[in-house]
Amino acid sequence: MDLIPRPTSVLRRTGGFRLTPTTSLTAGPGAEGAAALLRDLLRPATGLPLAPAGVARGNAIALRVDERAADLGAEGYRLDVSPERALLTAAAPTGLLRGVQTLRQLLPPEAWGDRPVRGVRWELPCVSVRDVPRLRWRGGHLDVARWWMPPSFLFRYVDLLAAHKMNVLHLHLTDDQGWRMEIERRPRLTEVGAWRSHSMAGALAEERYDDVPHGGFYTRRELGDLVAYAARRGVTVVPEIDLPGHTQAAIAAYPELGGELPGPDEPVEVSPRWGVHDRILDPGEASLDFCRDVLEEVLDVFPSPFVHIGGDEVPTTRWRASPSVRRRARELGLSVDGLHGWFTGELDAWLHARGRRTVGWDDVLVAGRARPLSEGAAVMSWLGAEGALAAAAAGHEVIMTPYDWTYLDYGQAEGPGEPLSMGHVTTLEKVYAFDPVPAPLTDAQVLGTQGQLWTEYLPTPERVEYAAFPRLCALAEVAWSPPAGRDLGEFLGRLRTHLTRLDRMGVRYRPPDPLSSSAPPTD
Ligand code: ACM
User: Fold this and answer.
1) Residue ranges of the domains in the chain?
2) Which of 10, 208, 437, 480 is a plausible cystine mate for 202, CB 3.0–4.6 Å?
3) Is 292 exposed, middle or buried (0-12, 13-18, 19+ CB in 10 A)?
């Protein structure tokens, strides 16, 4: 069966449930969305109508929300398959969406294609599956700021996340190299900030550039469509507007946001180079007004309870050189560096007052301490476990994103033949061995984990997929499956089957190295 992520428990029985043109699909109250998703997923390859019972008179697939199954939580499900009936039960509609993905994995891999296939016996093995996720936030981060990606790819990435029972798409929408979200009140953000004249053509240290202008942005409508598409698959799109650092594209659009230094200053362009930039937002009222204008529109488009305001890598060189910033710090009784935490605190309080939960990279803890984060704010710990421990001690939930383990833009193997990347290597085996709950934290304090795809060296969807897969399959299992029983050889055996599914979807993954010596697929 080779399910990924591995379910909590699976009992295999003899026999199978054959899907034919007379198989019915019935959805109880609350299960309509999951039934529609199942039909949508299976129709292209199988052509099966899966009509409601009464119209179809063969064996039956039934989807039910049963509030009494509270032990399954918000996302768990049970799947009981006998030759006559495949019954999917969950306590909530989202659980059914997860179960639908299991049902799809139980079918032959040909079911994963987008063209009709003939001559395949569409049969589910008879099983009883009970499956409840370990962690609540199982995410995929995608940086669309360094390189714009077509909306069709964002939809596909949502499909791929959902297929692995991941439930968050964290969209990194803004950075020094591009601003990707249309903001009606600040049109220059995309008129100017979404385009750059050239880009780095080699490794950071080489300082080589191409001369190819490019860019793009997403309209509010496009992003709204993405949000709705993801919601139908049980995936929440969490927007990130990175503030107050990583804002050179915004400053190129509105130079006054960068503040003033005594003496002449260089003009600001949307940055063609990677790395940390010291052109950051001036920590004054005009910048706060700007951030609130942007966030108002972000809240309009993204219903996500969580809104990410970045907060990473905020060099204060320019702030320290600016008399007006130094004055502001003095007035607030802060150090200049403390303005970072203060600025974040202002935005956090603003989001909190609007019923949203702030997420910030763990730099927001290390940098400021000027003001505690609001209740409900969560910290994304990329620098290691230290930020997570500090955040948890202050009562915040954490999302574990340490770069060593979860930055999927890092190389996948040493040696030649791999595409250019940041230079570090994080192998599939390493991701599979990741412990997302650092001692002494408990599962309850860790909201979850996610795989990061920073795209400096991933300019196309093809390159993104190569970086993401199969490491994201491993991370999905880390986030979803019980840690007891995690076994690399056994996982690699299941992965071999799973990759035949991704083949049918045309996913351009990196074939794993140790596959030839790994365990054979299990039944
Ligand atoms: C980060 O990698 N700067 C969050």
Assistant:
1) 9-131, 137-487
2) 208
3) middle
Q: Quote the ligand 1 centre to 127 CA distance (angstroms).
A: 43
Distance CA(100)–CA(63), nearest Å, equals 9
Q: Look up residue 330 and give its amino acid.
A: R
- Calculate how far, in angstroms, residue 312's C-alpha sits from the geometric centre of ligand 1: 6
**Residue 76 contacts residue 95 (beta carbons within 8 Å):** yes
Rounded distance, CA 397 to CA 389, Å? Answer: 10
**pTM across the whole model:** 0.97
Residue whose CA is closest, atom 2 of ligand 1?
382
Report, as residue numbers or ranges, the catalytic residues: 175, 246, 313
Cα 513 to Cα 412: distance, rounded to the nearest angstrom: 10
CB 372 within 8 A of CB 351: no
**Average pLDDT, integer, range 233-240:** 99
> Sorting pLDDT into bands at 50, 70 and 90, what band is 148?
very high
Ligand 1 atom 1 nearest Cα: 312
Task: Take atom 3 of ligand 1 and give the residue whose Cα is closest.
Answer: 312
d(C-alpha 28, C-alpha 490), whole Å: 36
Beta bridge pairs of residue 373: none
Q: What is the average pLDDT value for the chain, to the nearest integer?
A: 95
Q: The domain 9-131 is classified under which CATH number: 1.10.8.60, 3.30.379.10, 1.10.10.10, 3.40.50.1820?
A: 3.30.379.10
Report the nearest atom of ligand 1 relative to the CA of 401. Answer: 4
List, chain by chain if needed, residues with CB within 6 Å of any ligand 1 atom: 312-313, 361, 382
- How many Å lie between the centroid of ligand 1 and the Cα of residue 282? 20
Query: DSSP 3-state assignment of 423?
Result: coil
Cβ within 8 Å of residue 384, ≥6 positions away: 402, 404
What does residue 312 show for φ and ψ, rounded to 5 degrees? -85, 155
Which amino acid type is present at position 479? Answer: A
Cβ atoms < 10 Å from Cβ of 353: 9
pLDDT of residue 435: 97
Ligand 1 centroid to Cα of residue 310, in Å, is 8
pLDDT band, very low/low/confident/very high, at 517 (cuts 50, 70, 90): very low
Q: Ligand 1, closest atom to CA 407?
A: 2
Substitution candidate for ligand 1 out of 172, 313, 404 with most atoms within 8 A of CB: 313
DSSP state, residue 157:
H
End-to-end CA distance of the chain: 5
Cβ neighbours, 10 Å, residue 358: 25
- Give me 316's structure tokens: 């204060």
Q: Which residues are CB-neighbours of 20 under 8 A, at least 6 positions away? A: 48, 58, 59, 122
Token pair 């043109």 is found at 21
Q: In the CATH hierarchy, which top-level class contains the domain 137-487? A: alpha beta
Tell me the CA distances in angstroms from 201 to 210, 261, 272, 325, 378, one per residue in order: 5, 32, 10, 36, 36
> What are the two backbone dihedrals, phi and then psi, of residue 404, each rounded to the nearest 5 degrees?
-65, -25
